[in-house]
Every structure is written in structure tokens, then in C-alpha cells.
Amino acid sequence: MDTAMATRDNSAAMIVPVAIRKTGGRFEAFAPAFADLKPVRAASMDAALARITESVASHIADLADSGTTVPDVGTVETIAKRPECKRATITVVQVDDKALETDRERVNIIIARRILAAADDYAKRNGLNRSELFTKAVAKFIGFDPRKILRFKWRGRPAKKKGR
Questions:
Q1: Of 19, 37, 16, which Cα lies nearest the Cα of 28?
Q2: For 143, left (φ over 0), alpha (ψ -120 to 50), or beta?
Q3: Are the beta carbons of 20 and 48 closer than 8 angstroms?
Q4: Does 3.90.1300.10 match the CATH number of domain 3-103+146-153?
Q5: Which of 12, 43, 82, 102 is deepest in the core (most CB within 10 A)?
Q6: Residues 86/155/44/40 CA torsion (nearest 10 deg)
Q7: What are the DSSP E strand ranges found in 24-159?
Q8: Phi and psi of 30, rounded to 5°?
Q9: pLDDT-based confidence at 60, cuts 50/70/90?
Q10: Is the pLDDT of residue 2 over 60?
Q11: Domain boundaries, given as residue ranges, for the chain
Q12: Lowest-confidence region among 12-21, 23-32, 53-62, 144-153
């Protein structure tokens, strides 16, 4: 794989290398660049890839939503050389730049004082500020799922479809 594909490709997507290995009859997938992201386990390699894709998507969305910079994830070559990646299949997850957007916009809304007071109280009890609470509430209300922005590519044989 080309080293120039470190974190961005021509389609303006962040490329996150992930590793999948077989342990004890199951497949374990992990993203070495995100040490705090727990590995996922599944019965098949395809299921492990799907789970790590969702996990990486959620993690990156959480980082972006909190205003935290997404760290450099390295290249496929650097990840493949890590000791924990020996005997692992290395593949990539592509994250569309829309999922990484952290620009904020000030909005002016009119809301009943009693609702605003209840929202502020809830936010305080849950360690959020007003903007974080409103962002999470609106995203949940409209069904916004940052994982839907993501797409992944598996550098291997495509999975066989059942029933065909």
C-alpha cells in the first residue's frame, strides 16, 4: 500500500488503519491509533470489520463533537510493523471529512424559560454545557448518525452473499 495514503486520499477522506486477527476461534479487530478504543470481537472477519468500522466511526464522531483534534492515525506500513499487529490482517476504514467537521455556528433561538432552565439543570447534572446538550438532543431527535457518513474498504476478497 502506498505510504502517501497516510491519513488522507484524493477523495478527501481520512483513512484509519485497523487490524484484525484470529484469537481463540474468534476474530478481534482494533484500531492501533486509538489506544483508548476497546477491541471488538466477532465470529467472522466480516462481522469484526463491521463492528470496528462502527466503533471507529463513533469514536471519531465523539472526538469531533467534543472539539478534540483527531490524532494522526499513521500509515498502513507503520501500523503493520507494530508488535500487536503481527499475524493480523491490516485494512482501512475511510472516514468522510463531513464526519470530522468541527466548525460551530452560533444560532439564535427562542425557547420558553422553564424549558431552558430544565435543560440547563439537566446539562449541569450530566457534565454538559448548554450547547453540548442541545447538539446531542437535536442529533438524537432527527436521527442523525455520524456512522452513516462513513464508508469502509476491505483490501481482500469480497464476502460471499448468502443465498446466491
A1: 19
A2: left
A3: yes
A4: no
A5: 82
A6: 60
A7: 26-30, 40-42, 89-96, 151-153
A8: -150, 160
A9: confident
A10: no
A11: 3-103+146-153
A12: 144-153
